[in-house]
Structure formats: structure tokens, C-alpha cells
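Journal club side-thread
Mid-discussion, someone asked how the predicted structure for our own chain would compare to the paper's figures. Pasting it here so we can look after the session.
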Amino acid sequence: MSWYIVRHAEKEPGDFYNPHLRHQDQPISLKGRQDAQKLCSFFAEKQISAIYVSSYQRTRQTIEEVAGRLELAPLVDARLNEIDNGCIEGLNDQELYQEYPDIWTAYRERKFDFRFPGGETGIEAQQRIINFLIEKLPQHGAESIILVSHDGLIRLLMCYILNLPVFNRWNFRIDTCGIMEVTYQKDFNAWKLIRFNQACL
């Protein structure tokens, strides 16, 4: 069994406000669609039993062609949503420094976890994806599945799997459509990282 974690494809710039979500709900761009199509060849020969996506349309759009070929309907799970950045969403570095100097310092030092103003801590966001793993493991423990999520949450998942503190998450780079593969080692009660940020060429 392998669980494949995919970051969504490149998104369109611009204002795509959705009152039900904390981040902009951008669709994927033309380049994003082209990159997403390349995922089909990667998953063509794999026996996938389920696909999970976040609440954001870009995750569903990223995997919809793969899902169509596999004849699977993607299942939405809000625990796969991006970390909630609260009030700093949309701020540039200078604005963040001026309006939230303590948050800027914590972000720059990367020595401890912190809460985004009006949002989540790294640990809180990480706990969402951990809860997802705990719930789905008995259901899909012997199966292969696909999760389509976001940069920040995937980096927090990597910290969990590698037993690293959440403030180390900025030391990872996750490209759009990058693929991670993990498998659960029942004998050791631990997850094993098989591949990280693989691109489909």
C-alpha cells in the first residue's frame, strides 16, 4: 500500500474570494492544467482505491482527469485544507513586518511554533492531517490512495513523518504537482517516506 500526497497545480492569480473558505479559491491556470495532465501517466498503472481533496477547487481540478480515468469520484475533506494564515493572508513581507512584528520575528527565526493572527498554529494544522491519517488508516491500510492538498499542510505532514518540529516546515520545498509517497510500517507503528516532491515530466 502507498499513499500519494500531491500538491495542487499552479493556480490563477487574482481575487477569487469564497466566503466559506479562509484562502482565495483560485482555479488552476492553463499551465496548471497542462501539468495536472502529466499526473495521468504517473498513476496510470497504479491501483488506487480512493482520492481525497481539500475544500478548494484547485485540488479537485488538479486530479479530475486522473479521477476520471480511474473512475473515482474525489472525496472532499476539509482537514486537507491549507494552514489558516488568519489576518496575514495576502500581506507581503513588508506589510507583515509592519503590522505583526512578533509574527515576522517568529517566522524569520524559525525556532518555535506560533499562531497566525486569527488563524492556526503549526501544531493545530498538523493535528488535522494527523487525525485524517488515524481515521483513514483502518479503512485504507492495505490500499493505495491519493490525497491532493496544499504546500503548507504537506510540509507539516512531512515534519510529522520525519519526526521534526513544525517550525522546520519552511526547510522543505514542495512544487506544484509535486508527488510525495508514504507507506505505513505496521510492525514499527510508523510512516516511511518513499519519495518526496517528485515531478511528472
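Post-session note: Residues 122-140 form the longest helix (19 residues).
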